[in-house]
Amino acid sequence: MERLRQFIYGIIAGICIGIGGIVYLSCENSIVGSFLFSIGLITICFFKLQLFTGKVGYIIVNKPYYIIELIITWIGNFTGTFLTGVLISHTRVFQNLSKVVSIVDTKLSDNIISIFILSVFCGMLMFIAVDTFKNAKEGMVKIIGVIFPVVVFILSGFEHCIANMFYFTLADVWDINSFTYIIVMTLGNSFGGIIIPFSGKFFRKTTVHSGTIQ
Question: How big is the chain by its Cα radius of gyration, in Å?
Answer without folding.
Answer: 17
